[in-house]
From TrEMBL:
It comes from Plastoroseomonas arctica. The keyword Nucleotidyltransferase applies. Residues 1-25 are annotated as: Disordered. Residues 498-620 form the HD domain. Gene3D superfamilies: 3.30.70.260, Beta Polymerase, domain 2 (3.30.460.10), cca-adding enzyme, domain 2 (1.10.3090.10). Belongs to the GlnD family. This is Bifunctional uridylyltransferase/uridylyl-removing enzyme. Has four distinct domains: an N-terminal nucleotidyltransferase (NT) domain responsible for UTase activity, a central HD domain that encodes UR activity, and two C-terminal ACT domains that seem to have a role in glutamine sensing. Residues 738-819, 849-926 form the ACT domain. HAMAP family: PII_uridylyl_transf. Residues 1-382 are annotated as: Uridylyltransferase. NCBIfam families: PRK05092.1 (NF003467), UTase_glnD (TIGR01693).
Length: 930
């Protein structure tokens, strides 16, 4: 028979309506392939066989991929069809090996070829491993070992990843008893070829052994395995780059439920648990079984697409794959929401549903297998009157009390668990999940509002909120909350979805309340204890991002939502106004601290005019700290904490003084007097020369100690006739390194220094640029390393100084060196940041303020500042902030005459040059690149 007989495998695809798996036997395809390998019962040569098998494998993948990408099959059906077609390949190889490996003269003991793992369950992703077990009654014979080796080498030569083991039936039982991973693999065992009697004996003994071992040890092992897996791959179902297989809410969690049901009841599919006559007495409803099936199919569809796009067994859905997979699945822009964000929201909601299924089904399986818990009467009258009892030492609804009849019991349950330090019984949480839809009847209910506020503002609020969110209660009780569940922003700044970020922020408030962050955020920790509007703060934190994803300014929209929600929760009109105001202005402190010159009196007065109240200032600072620390572990650092504290104290001082600041000349005189007192003992001429160098802006930008260090630098440079002086100082408390450069001023100085710092691997977080009265420049940069820590290694600091000198002398070709700097990971390149330039002549009385938004890259600051200098502008200060891959840089600039830039033509030219500088180097217009 020729190879053409294998041209088109004729296995019908599975039923797409119910994702049923095709049958195990496909005599048409199997017979054709075996006939090609064994024409006339004489085996072809190995090279010929390998070619036939390779073509067959290619057709398997091409056929399944074609039907899948045409949307004729869903992910689960495709995985089952892929496994069924792979069966024909494996069985053919078995038959070929049997013919190719000669039999010994003595009687050979047979063996059985068994599929295990995911392949044993009859599902395969395009690049999944194939797990095989070579099963014997006793020890494998030499001839059997040769056959196994022959098969494995064929599979490896085909490019397949094969997990394999050779065991006797007794070995299987011994290994399974001591290793939960082996035990789990055995649960999925499925015979492919070989001696059927061996597999039957294995199945019989394995089933009997499971009964003897009991369900409890397997349940404990799977729970421990799941906890370890979640700790490694993500303990939240709302991480923005989720692991589809191993993360919380992923495929492995669904498989764990299946394994538990399979072990306890011997079922093959989850729908077998539906109905009163089902094992366990009907553990799930038909609606729940359908929801599990939808989640299973959706996750498999995403996984199938991910494998095909990546061209490998990729399980983590990183930023670069998200838009591609989302587009392949048909998610397009809808209103204000991008297609990728709609796709990820669906994925996160599915992950939450899987976490919910686990909470709901696992305790039911446990109790059906091990017996119902003994429900003991409540230990005291108050608990009994509230409608609760104890089971296994955990809270559960007492007989006769039903969440459907009295939904407020759901909130009472959570409050009592918190107040008494008790756990909620898994069966009670199962009821909470199933009956959460009745929470809609609690909207506006005074008792429900009082309990909810007590939970929100009380101990371990984040724990209870996360549970209520996972149960679906919050989405029913607060309809606006449902719109942010699973909502992500397609950027690298936010680590969590909006709902999970909000719960994290509530958790940070709790940490501040318990004084656990006194070293990290001492001012916020102290202020929280002084607040008069504590309930307003917690509710504002709950609602601060409630309007994200609606289009428009989420702060403004959220303030309106707060006006509607707060009265329903039982807040007073005064509290409602405070919450709405906090939501409206919750970004004010952070945006000002990181984007504006806080030494500029107008900056402080502008904030004071908005805040107007010391209490509101305290509330804003605490909310800002909670919001920032909840974004992700790398967002908060000592430098940002310092900026927030300094801004708070400056505004607080203004508010305490009646919204006024000392006149500029008075402040300059005070600064000079302070440094003069520190310089006593130095030559008078030296001190007077230094005091005459700085313009007013310089004297208002630093503290007296820094001025004294600058005076020493200036004096040493003058005495040594040094044209360039570079000093570095590590500020551990602020997580930054201060780099001070003193030299003759010239156009493009900032750009050259910024380029040298980029080549050195330093990231600039803030800068102050000062031209002195004698034409010298005293520029200060605060830098961090790539991890957001101080740039503190001695050899790197030494190299940094050398690079600055080489850059300023022209011996360093910045453009060439910057291109050598390590590029960002490929997964981040999919996140786009449109270039944006905002020029503001109202934020400062003395400078034009330029805000530049663009994609961060090595040398970006060098390019942007070169564009500013190229337009004849002088940079007075720079404030550098990054949000993931988005850079937001703010510059205070003047023209060559020391004035604001107010000419429309010049502003237009400046804007055009800056936009060009934000483009990637390969697309910068030729004119701009000259």
């Amino acid at each position: 028979m020729t190879a053409s007989r294998t041209a088109s495998p004729r296995v019908s695809p599975p039923d797409t309506a119910n994702n049923a798996a095709p049958g195990d036997d496909h005599p048409d395809v199997l017979a054709d392939l075996i006939a090609s390998l064994l024409p006339g019962d004489v085996p072809v040569g190995r090279d010929v066989a390998l070619g036939l098998l390779r073509r067959h494998l290619g057709r398997i993948h091409a056929q399944v991929q074609q039907r899948f990408e045409a949307k004729a099959l869903g992910g689960l059906a495709s995985a089952r069809w892929m496994a069924a077609l792979t069966d024909t390949l494996i069985r053919s190889i078995y038959s070929y090996a049997e013919a190719m490996v000669p039999h010994a003269k003595e009687q050979d003991a047979p063996f059985c070829l068994v599929a295990t793992g995911g392949y044993g369950r009859g599902v395969l992703a395009p690049f999944s491993d194939i797990d095989l077990l070579f099963l014997t009654d006793d020890e494998m014979t030499p001839r059997g070992e040769r056959a196994v080796e022959f098969m494995l080498y064929l599979l490896w030569d085909l490019g397949l990843k094969v997990g394999h083991a050779t065991r006797s039936v007794a070995n299987c039982l011994d290994d399974a008893k001591g290793d939960a991973t082996v035990l789990t693999a055995m649960l999925d065992a499925r015979r492919l070829a070989g001696d059927a009697g061996i597999f039957a004996r294995f199945t019989q003994r394995f089933t009997k052994a499971r009964g003897e071992w009991g369900f409890g040890h397997f349940l404990a092992a799977k729970r421990a395995e799941r906890a370890s897996r979640h700790a490694r791959y993500g303990d939240s179902p709302f991480l923005v780059e989720p692991h589809l297989k191993e993360g919380r809410g992923g495929l492995r969690d669904l498989q764990t439920l299946y394994w538990l049901a399979r072990y306890a009841f011997g079922v093959q599919r989850m729908p077998e648990l539906v109905g009163a006559n089902a094992p366990g007495g009907g553990l799930i409803t038909e609606e729940e079984a359908s929801a599990i099936r939808r989640a299973w199919d959706f996750l498999w569809t995403v996984r199938f697409h991910l494998h095909l796009v990546a061209g490998r067994a990729e399980e983590r859905l990183t930023f670069d794959f998200q838009p591609v997979v989302g587009a392949r699945m048909g998610y397009t822009r809808h209103g204000k929401q991008d297609g990728v964000e709609r796709f990820m929201k669906h994925l996160f909601i599915t992950a939450r549903d899987v976490a919910r299924f686990t909470r709901m089904l696992e305790p039911a399986i446990e109790r059906a297998a091990l017996g119902l818990p003994a429900v003991l009467p409540a230990p005291d009258k108050a608990l009994a009157e509230a409608g609760f009892a104890l089971a296994d030492g955990k809270l559960i609804a007492a007989p006769g009390f039903d969440f459907r009849e009295k939904p407020v019991l759901m909130l009472r349950l959570v409050k009592l668990a918190r107040d008494r330090g008790l756990d909620i019984h898994p069966l009670a949480f199962r009821a909470l999940i199933r009956q959460s839809r009745h929470a809609v009847r609690l909207r506006g209910d005074p008792e429900a509002g009082a309990i909810f506020l007590d939970l929100l503002c009380g101990r371990d609020a984040a724990v209870w909120l996360r549970q209520l969110n996972e149960a679906g209660f919050l989405s029913r009780y607060l309809p606006d909350w449902a719109r942010i569940v699973g909502l992500m922003q397609f950027d690298t700044y936010h680590v969590f979805t909006v709902d999970e970020h909000t719960v994290e922020a509530i958790g940070v408030l709790g940490q501040l309340d318990r004084n656990e962050l006194s070293e990290i955020a001492p001012v916020a920790s102290e202020l929280l204890a002084q607040l008069q509007s504590r309930r307003a703060l917690y509710v504002a934190t709950l609602l601060h991002d409630i309007a994200k994803g609606r289009g428009g300014d989420h702060s403004e929209l959220g303030a309106v939502v707060a006006q509607e929600v707060c009265p329903k929760l039982g807040l007073t009109p005064e509290e409602t106004e405070t919450v709405s105001w906090l939501v409206l202005h919750h970004l004010l402190i952070s945006q000002t601290a990181f984007k504006r010159d806080i030494e500029d009196p107008k900056t402080i007065l502008d904030i004071a005019e908005v805040v107007q109240s010391p209490e509101r200032l305290r509330l804003l600072l605490v909310l800002t700290v909670a919001d920032m620390r909840a974004v992700g572990p790398k967002v908060w650092n000592g430098w940002k904490a310092t900026l927030l504290r300094e801004l708070y104290w400056r505004v607080a001082e203004v508010l305490a003084g009646g919204l006024s600041v000392p006149e500029r000349d008075v402040r300059v005189a005070r600064a000079k007097d302070a440094v003069a007192s520190l310089l006593k003992g130095r030559p008078k001429a030296e001190v007077e020369r230094y005091l005459g160098l700085g313009y007013p802006g310089y004297w208002l930008s630093f503290d007296p100690q820094t001025h004294a260090r600058h005076a020493t630098m200036v004096a040493e440079a003058a005495s040594g006739h040094t044209p360039l002086t570079v000093r570095t100082r590590v500020l551990e408390a602020r997580s930054v390194t201060e780099v001070t450069v003193f030299c003759t001023d010239h156009p493009g100085l900032f750009s050259k220094i910024a380029g040298a710092l980029a080549v050195a691997g330093a990231s600039i977080v803030d800068a102050r640029i000062h031209t002195m009265t004698d034409g010298t420049a005293l520029d200060t940069f605060w830098v961090q390393d790539a991890s957001g820590a101080a740039f503190d290694q001695p050899h790197r600091l030494a190299r940094l100084s050398v690079l600055i000198e080489q850059s300023l002398s022209g011996r360093l070709k910045l453009s060439d060196e910057i291109r050598k700097v390590r590029r960002e990971p490929a997964r981040l390149r999919a996140v786009t940041v449109p270039p944006r330039v905002v020029i503001d002549n109202h934020a400062s009385n003395t400078h034009t303020v330029i805000e530049v938004n663009g994609r961060d890259r090595p040398g970006l600051l060098h390019d942007v500042t070169a564009a500013i200098s190229g337009q004849g502008m002088q940079i007075a200060s720079a404030h550098i902030t990054t949000y993931g891959v988005r850079a937001v840089d703010v510059f205070y600039v003047k023209d060559v005459f020391g004035l604001k830039i107010e000419n429309d033509r010049k502003l237009a030219q400046l804007r055009e040059a800056l936009v060009d500088s934000l483009l990637p180097p390969e697309v910068v217009p030729a004119v701009a690149a000259k």
